[in-house]
Design a protein that fits this description.
By secondary structure, the chain is α+β, with helices and mostly antiparallel strands. The protein has 5 helices and 10 strands, in the order ααββαββββββββαα. A 6-stranded mixed β-sheet has the order 2-1-10-9-4-3. α1 packs across α5.
């Protein structure tokens, strides 16, 4: 009986370690200052309307699509506005400085692990009837796990040659009046029944699955939310951020949900 209990305990510890590793190393986009979830003792999360384009002028559609393709092909920091915000289903919001730091820290190892990664971006559209400066597009990434990956918890993961076939994923960018990226969203899987090898996971969580590191990346995940709060207690700079401090986010971003909070 003791052996069984020890085995179960080890499985739990391993799962938690894998979860922490995901939070530590994949804050790209993708890829931790925990803020109070509630205000004024309310039991309901504070959710305010996000006015992305409240003060933006509509740029020509052709220009928007051209700008979007340029950014997707070469996402350099000079293309981001000073009040930029990144958000994924469970990562973000990240302000400009935190996004840049996260991208640089997490992106290198994944590029080594998947050197032939091709995002396969397509379907660029600037026809959003509500947010005229928003460009939507899709990705169906492909790659091969042929390079070693330095996992922060389990150590080096040797390549297996496993094929990375991602499900179709919706992404978007919003531009300001100067043609700079004001907002970026990634990781929203549109169909998880297309024969992918990532367990239906989008963005970096799919790449981790191919490397044998499965993780619950669902919105509202209690475990993920808990771990994101725990890592916020670590000294600044210890791990890449899951979300920025509220005071570092621009005023236009008014939604108070952080990380994987539903």
């Amino acid at each position: 009986m003791t052996g069984v209990r020890c085995c179960r305990l080890w499985q739990i510890i391993t799962r938690v370690n894998n979860m922490i590793a995901i939070i530590v190393s994949t804050r790209i986009i993708c890829t931790n200052a925990f803020l109070p979830l509630y205000e004024g003792g309310s039991k309901l999360p504070v959710q305010a309307k996000i006015g992305y384009n409240s003060n933006l002028k509509s740029l020509p559609k052709d220009d928007l699509i051209c700008l979007a393709k340029e950014y997707v092909n070469d996402p350099t920091p000079d293309k981001l506005s000073n009040d930029f915000v990144f958000r994924g289903p469970v990562i973000g919001p990240l302000c400009k400085k935190d996004f840049i730091a996260t991208f640089e820290s997490a992106g290198k190892d994944l590029k080594t692990a998947f050197p032939d990664l091709v995002p396969n971006s397509f379907g660029f559209s600037a026809d959003d009837p509500v947010e005229p400066n928003r460009v939507w597009y899709f990705e169906r990434a492909r790659g091969t796990f042929t390079g070693a990956f330095n996992h922060p918890v389990v150590g080096k993961i040797e390549p297996t040659g496993a094929e990375y076939i991602a499900p179709p994923e919706a992404r978007s960018v919003i531009f300001d009046d100067d043609g700079l990226v004001k907002y970026q969203s990634v990781g929203y899987v549109t169909d998880r029944f297309t024969g992918d090898t990532s367990g239906g996971r989008g963005a970096v969580f799919g790449m981790y699955a191919v490397m044998g590191q499965n993780i619950d990346a669902g919105v509202g995940s209690i475990v993920t939310t808990m771990l994101q709060k725990m890592t916020a207690l670590l000294p600044e700079g210890t791990v890449p951020l899951s979300f920025s401090k509220q005071e570092d986010l621009p005023e236009w971003w008014t939604d108070r949900r952080m990380g994987s909070e539903a």
